[in-house]
Write a structure and sequence with these properties.
The chain is an alpha+beta fold. It is built from 3 helices and 6 strands; from the N terminus they run ββααβββαβ. A hairpin with a 4-residue loop joins strand 3 and strand 4. The radius of gyration is 21 Å and the shape is flat.
């Protein structure tokens, strides 16, 4: 099934007088919850229940948060890896920089090979206006 997209007109902040252009935005087709994921994973196995899988996924979320807060990269094998990324103001000299200049922290995800392959084979179609 192709990924649907919508178009949004945006200006270039560095060139306010330049004409606006249209850019694609991926359109969500729904969501999958942790509970439904656990049922799906358990359904593919004969040895664990969806309750067991859900408990593991809940613990995984907590442990992932803790390790990221400690500044670690968390690698999930072929799935990919998570790490922190920072956005900050700049300083002219290294000694002028201080932690208050850091504006936001985000979680970065680098997909593994299977997810990269999926991205390379995606098909796209414009979403109908509802």
């Amino acid at each position: 099934m192709p990924v649907q997209y919508t178009l949004t007109q945006k200006g270039n902040p560095s060139k306010p007088t330049a004409p606006k252009k249209y850019y694609a935005n991926a359109k969500s087709s729904g969501e999958v919850t942790l509970r439904s994921l656990s049922k799906e994973i358990a359904g593919a196995s004969t040895t664990v229940s969806d309750t067991d899988v859900l408990a593991v996924l809940n613990d995984l979320t907590k442990i992932l948060s803790r390790h990221l807060a400690e500044g670690k990269i968390v690698r999930f094998g072929d799935f990919g890896s998570f790490s922190l990324t920072l956005s900050s103001e700049g300083s002219e000299q290294e000694y002028d920089f201080n932690a208050s200049m850091i504006k936001t922290a985000k979680i970065g995800f680098r997909p593994g090979l299977d997810l990269k392959d999926m991205l390379a084979t995606l098909k796209f179609e414009k979403a109908s206006r509802d």
